[in-house]
C-alpha cells in the first residue's frame, strides 16, 4: 500500500505528542516528590522546636518551684536558641499564693526568619505555688 504525501509523518507527530505528555507527567511527579520531602523536613524541624520550647518550660517550672524566677533567660537546646520569660504575681487574700507565668520561645540558630526551613515555637504556662 502506497501512502500519499499527506499521510506520511503522522506516526512522528503522535510519538512526539506521547513523549511530551509523558515528560510533563514526569516533571509533575518530580515536583510533587520534592514538595513532599520539603514538607516532611519542616514537620521534623517543627517538632524539634516544640520539644526545645517544652524543655524551656520544664526548666522554668523547676526553677520557679525552687523560688527562682529570672525575668529573662536564654540557653541552647540542640540547634535552637530558647528564651524563657518569667513574670511573678503574688496574691495575698484569701489564700496567699504565687503565680508564675512562663513563656518559652524556641527559634533556630542557623536559619533567619523568612528563609526556608525557619520554624519557631512558643509555649506558655502558669505555675501556682503556696506563699511561703
Q: Shape from CA axes?
A: rod-shaped
Residue runs with pLDDT of under 50 for 5 or more positions: none
Give the number of helices: 1
The topology string of helices and strands comes to HEEEE
**Cα radius of gyration in angstroms:** 30 Å
Biggest sheet features: 4 strands, antiparallel
Give the fraction of residues assigned to helices: 40-55%
Q: How much of the polypeptide forms β-strand, as a percent range? A: 25-35%
Separation of the first and last Cα atoms? 107 Å
Q: Return the structural class.
A: alpha+beta
Task: Count structural domains.
Answer: 1
Taking strands numbered 1, 2, ... along the chain, how are they ordered across the largest sheet? 1-2-3-4
Characterize the quaternary organization of these chains.
Answer: single chain
The overall average pLDDT, rounded, is 83
Q: Strand tally, please?
A: 4
Question: What does it look like?
Answer:
- This protein is an alpha+beta fold.
- The chain has one domain (10-130).
- The protein has 1 helix and 4 strands.
- Strands 1-2-3-4 form a 4-stranded antiparallel beta sheet.
- The termini are far apart.
- The model has no long low-confidence stretch (mean pLDDT 83).
